């Protein structure tokens, strides 16, 4: 065989050996990496065991039900099941977006969510900062106990309290107004008062509980920063503005991003219990619409498309807000 041909054969053997060596290195690297992961899991096995119930909960109740989203593209019948129901494509979405109810539902849902973001979201931050500035520990603990308690009340109980306090015929507030010579006010039947009433209920119920996360974040701020500020003669307001708020800024950003992901979820129980015919024009949201058409009328496929629309909007809001936060130099959600 001529020399060039022999060189080509030798070069082919050399390239093949190099390929085998590279593959061997990759396999060896992957084995070592897998062994490293196994070692880490074995070392922290008790922590993983503690996390296992939460992971199973999300797997069973969050991810497995996603299989049912396919009925949004079907004319689903419980008797035929998912596999045998007819496919209708995007017909349910077209029907939903073209209905007269869509814009009303969108307006009410976004209005209530926006008011929650503007008024309810800052409330736990303000309360946490006020508690952090409190010097007497006994007073601080009493206030925390009082403001945490409403969180454990169900919306049924809160609705009952609201009816007792705000009822037009025999409500406590209207009874006081009548004693003072004023006319009764229809707090529960006036559309203009429905949205503010929801926000006040949310603040009373959950603002105190929301302070838990912010108080934990405040405890992580270096105390020497406050001592240096006091030595420099800074007032409390300037200390809060320049030390406290920047110290919990990342927590605020993350929770705000998560809150944006729930912008289409106002809360079915509260609106359903407080709503009535007189305020239906401002109380009808996506959740009540799904209940009315899905549970009462049995239109499962149609309401599944509504739920998918809500989920897609929430996902887009989270991704957009996270990218915006990173663009502004903040720590995002991921």
Summarize the structure.
The chain has 334 residues and is mainly α. The protein has 17 helices and 2 strands.
SSE succession: HHEHEHHHHHHHHHHHHHH
- Gap between N and C termini: 62 Å
Q: Provide the helix percentage.
A: over 70%
The overall average pLDDT, rounded, is: 87
Strand content: under 5%
Question: How does the helix and strand content classify structurally?
Answer: mainly alpha
Quick one: CATH superfamily of the largest domain?
MetI-like
CATH architecture of the largest domain: Orthogonal Bundle
Give the neighbour order of strands across the main sheet. Answer: 1-2
CATH class of the largest domain: Mainly Alpha
Give a written overview of the molecule.
Belongs to the binding-protein-dependent transport system permease family. One of its GO terms (biological process) is transmembrane transport. This protein has 334 residues and is mainly α. The chain folds into 2 domains: 3-67, no CATH class; 90-327, MetI-like fold (Orthogonal Bundle). It is built from 17 helices and 2 strands. It has helices spanning 3-43, 45-63, 81-84, 91-98, 101-120, 122-133, 137-148, 155-166, 172-179, 191-218, 223-231, 236-247, 249-261, 268-274, 280-283, 286-296, 300-327; strands spanning 74-75, 86-87. Strands 1-2 form a two-stranded antiparallel ribbon. α5 packs across α10, α7 (137-148) packs across α10 and α13 (249-261) packs antiparallel against α17 (300-327). The model has no long low-confidence stretch (mean pLDDT 87).
